[in-house]
Design a protein that fits this description.
heterodimer, A: about 500 residues, alpha/beta, Rossmann fold, 2 domains, globular, B: mainly alpha, ABC transporter involved in vitamin B12 uptake, BtuC, two-stranded antiparallel ribbon
Chain lengths: ~500, ~350
């Protein structure tokens, strides 16, 4: 096989997380190679290594017969590797032509841009991707599908040898997908090698020749797609092992309904969803990233606007238009973005904990620092937060300890229902277990717990039941007795694989 | 990738020592700079180290200190208030107009005038805060608009003329030097700083100001309304502009629609030199007082050294830039200690 790209024993470690470990893979010249994996399997780390955004900690990458060690995205482009990221990187207020040749604008004397050459070259490039549109159009006026084609045309303008497409069809309609595929085939005919990453398992058979599956940062297998089926792929992606770190506490019996959400509609385009959680119950929320899980929780909590829906707490309807309403009614939200939305990074541990209810450590508006320190020390001890003192800035704590501080702030406030969005993301295994223990303790205290997670084994280990989101819709609910990875995962993919 | 380059485990510094180092770097640094500058001018500039000159400096920093006290609140929340200079002008003409009302007794006129000044300033500040939070417009732009509107309003109210003839008792109080060393208007400035210090350090409200400046989204998701605190900070800045207008009347005895031109920049400079971070969440109002002192000591010292009016702004400008550079270094040092 004539390999254009080969990886040998490539690994990448982030503090506390092994993102990619010992991955060996070779991509044949001219093939369209599919890469699959669950959220967090290591796909995006792999892309970022190729893009020059990260550098590998171990292993070798060779491209076109030479060692490939890009230090920046610019290096990657120069070598002939081009990434079309999921979030498109076009400049909205510049024209298509300018975007296409931004790094290499045709110039006349004195550095003046040669508009004529610019536009005529742009027309040629756009033609190659089947986009017949005036290159002087501003990018902001384009639809997502057109922008994607502009990105691909941009890759062609650099004469790229290898094109990496990261979930290109995530936001496209069926006819747009069809067109994209015909362009991919045309590129392939021109000898361009393509690495194609997708969540839509059906479509990969149409364009791919071989598939590589990643799981937990490791390579599971590289196979010919021919002869494989969708269930085969699912099995490869999720594996079979559930770690023994979860020992479900079946002495906790859910009581009355703590929180019920009926016909919650975020906006006119999203379907209405309904679910509930009981006192002493841990309800898991599964689904792919972008399936509307986070958005639903944020809307429920009043963090984002919602169109419609009835929220009842302990059977009484409540009006929640802002987070302060939710908090007043005993809801707590642990956001997926711990640093950006959960913590006051530069402030000390104690100040982060008491922020949810300063009235508990003050009198007539005056802070009682001694009471505050006592309360903070109490919770820090209870949750075993490892900090040099409660005066340490939370910025300097590890991910797990930061997460414990977020939990501590809600425990300080006192809560009846906790909504946890990816509570163990970026948290090491030790702190993770402590967080699980804490959640069971809270469930035993009859708190309701909603746990959103992309880690399916985690949900299956922790929850009484799991509701599954797919494309903003709740497509199913699986009780503990019927937990089955394959079933939950196929529910999560349901709305995406539907042709 | 600045996140990953930071040490995950901080250097082992004992809590007591860390506290002292933190004090040294954050608060004592500016104070040390003030002492050094003062010693330098005392040694080199004629007349600098005289009681008369000290009094003069105290008198001269009063207005800027009061303005900068309110500005500290706004900058701590991550905003900026460019309007305080012309709000001060508007307040001086409103205050002076009330005070020269012949139907009122001097005491009543002075009291009403003080209230009018504070109310006018607070309303302007409230509008700044309300408009910028309600429509999510950068405060830079909103207060730039207010700068122009308040300046225009000052001309309208005063009919474009200077207002004189303030009551004698008021003028006398402005010239008063308590105990021979404490000018009355400097006392006002110190009281405003003390009040600000108390609020920021000991009250729930003060804590929220810091929290909002650190991460307003986290504050919102913790069940608060960050906009309330932002609007309050702007209202306080307007209020102190009103108080500063009163100090202006005490010192210069005229209400003038062209008062206060460029004052906002001096106030911002004092806050920044005093170590408050322009991105919000970090700083101290004591630092602001020291910052105001540094600015005035520099200005007076340079003048006494014979540095011409043309060169003086160049030096002061450099000092402001230097202060911001030092602020960046200070942050890095502090992070290593915590």
């Amino acid at each position: 096989m004539d390999a254009i790209l080969s990886l040998e024993g490539v690994g990448k470690i982030f503090p506390g997380v092994v993102a990619l470990s010992d991955v060996s893979l070779s991509i044949a010249r001219g093939e369209t190679h599919i890469v699959l994996g669950e959220n967090g399997a290591g796909k995006s780390t792999l892309i970022k290594l190729l893009a020059g955004i990260y550098q590998p900690d171990s292993g070798l990458i060779a491209f076109n017969g030479a060692a490939y060690q890009p230090k920046s995205p610019h290096d990657a482009q120069q070598s002939g590797i081009r990434i079309v990221h999921q979030e498109l990187n076009l400049l909205p207020y510049l024209s298509i032509a300018e975007n296409l040749m931004l790094e290499n604008l045709p110039r006349r004397a004195f550095g003046i841009v040669d508009r004529k050459a610019l536009n005529s070259r742009a027309v040629a490039l756009l033609k190659e991707v089947g986009l017949e549109i005036d290159p002087r159009t501003r990018v902001e006026a384009l639809g997502v599908a057109q922008m994607q084609l502009v990105e691909i045309a941009k890759a062609l303008s650099y004469d790229s040898k290898l094109l990496v497409l990261d979930e290109p069809t995530a936001t496209l309609t069926p006819p747009e997908i069809k067109r994209l595929f015909s362009i991919i085939k045309r590129l392939k005919a021109r000898g361009v090698t393509i690495i194609y990453i997708s969540h839509r398992l059906h479509e990969v058979f149409e364009i791919g020749e071989r598939v590589t599956v990643l799981r937990n940062g490791r390579l599971v297998a590289t196979r010919d797609l021919h002869g494989l089926t969708v269930p085969d792929l699912v099995r490869m992606m999720i594996g079979r092992d559930i770690a023994d770190e979860y020992s479900f506490d079946d002495t906790i019996v859910p009581g009355k309904i703590a929180l019920s959400v009926a016909n919650l509609k975020r906006n006119a385009a999203t379907p209405a969803i309904s679910f509930d959680v009981r006192h002493g119950e841990i309800v898991g929320v599964a689904g792919l990233v972008g399936s509307g899980r986070t958005e639903a929780m944020r809307a429920l909590f009043g963090a984002d606007a919602k169109l419609d829906g009835v929220i009842e707490i302990d059977g009484k309807p409540v009006a929640i238009t802002a987070p302060k309403d939710a908090v007043r009614h005993g809801l707590s939200l642990l956001t997926e973005d711990r640093k950006g939305q959960g913590l006051l990074l530069d402030l000390a541990v104690d100040k982060n904990i008491t922020i949810t209810d300063l009235s508990k450590v003050s009198r007539n508006g005056l802070l009682n620092r001694r009471a505050e320190a006592a309360a903070a020390n109490d919770l820090v001890g209870q949750l075993r937060v490892k900090a040099s003192s409660i005066e340490q800035a939370v910025r300097n704590l590890s991910g797990g300890n930061q997460q414990k501080v977020v939990l501590a702030k809600w425990l300080f406030r006192g809560t009846s229902t906790l909504i946890l969005d990816e509570p163990t993301r970026g948290v090491d295994i030790g702190a993770r277990r402590e967080i699980y223990q804490l959640l069971w303790m809270l469930a035993a205290q009859q708190k309701g717990i909603i746990m959103v997670s992309s880690d399916l084994p985690e949900l299956m280990g922790m929850c009484h039941r799991i509701i599954v989101f797919s494309k903003n819709r709740i497509v199913g609910e699986v009780p503990r007795a019927e937990f089955d990875q394959e079933r939950i995962l196929s529910l999560a993919y349901q709305e995406y694989v539907r042709p | 990738m600045t996140e990953t380059s930071e040490p995950l485990v901080s250097a082992p510094v004992s809590p007591g020592r860390a506290k002292f180092l933190r004090f040294l770097i954050r608060d004592a640094g500016v104070l040390l700079a003030l002492v050094l500058i003062t010693v330098f001018f005392s040694a080199t500039a004629p007349y600098f180290a005289t009681p008369d000159n000290a009094l003069k400096i105290f008198v001269q920093i009063a207005i800027n200190t009061v303005l900068a006290a309110g500005m500290t609140f706004v900058i701590l929340t991550g905003g900026i208030d460019l309007s305080v200079g012309s709000v001060l002008a508007l307040c001086t003409v409103v205050g002076a107009t009330v005070m020269i009302d012949e139907d009122l007794s001097p005491t009543a006129a002075i009291t009403l005038s003080l209230l009018a000044c504070m109310a006018t300033g607070a309303v302007c500040g409230f509008l700044n805060g309300w408009i910028s939070t309600r429509w999510k417009i950068p405060s830079f732009i909103v207060t730039l608009g207010m700068l122009n509107m308040a300046a225009g309003a000052a001309r309208v109210v005063s009919d474009n003329s200077t207002i004189t003839g303030l009551p004698q008792s008021f003028v006398d109080f402005g010239n008063l030097i308590i105990g021979g060393f404490l000018p009355s208007i400097f006392l006002v400035a110190v009281l405003v700083i003390a009040a600000g210090w108390f609020v920021l350090r000991f009250t729930v409200f003060g804590r929220m100001i810091f929290a909002v400046g650190t991460n307003d989204e986290a504050v919102r998701l913790s069940g608060h309304n960050p906009d309330f605190y932002k609007v309050a900070a702007f209202t306080i800045s307007g209020l102190t502009a009103g108080i500063a207008a009163m100090v202006y009347l005490l010192r210069l005895n005229i209400g003038s629609p062209i008062a206060g031109v460029g004052y906002e920049l001096n106030a911002i400079a004092a806050v920044i030199i005093g170590g408050t971070s322009l991105s919000g969440g970090k700083g101290s109002i004591i630092g602001t007082l020291v910052g105001a002192c540094i600015l005035q000591v520099l200005s007076t010292g340079l003048q006494l050294l014979g540095v011409g009016d043309n060169f003086k702004p160049i030096v002061i400008g450099l000092v402001i830039v230097l202060a911001v550079i030092l602020d960046a270094y200070r942050e890095r040092l502090l992070r290593r200690i915590r």
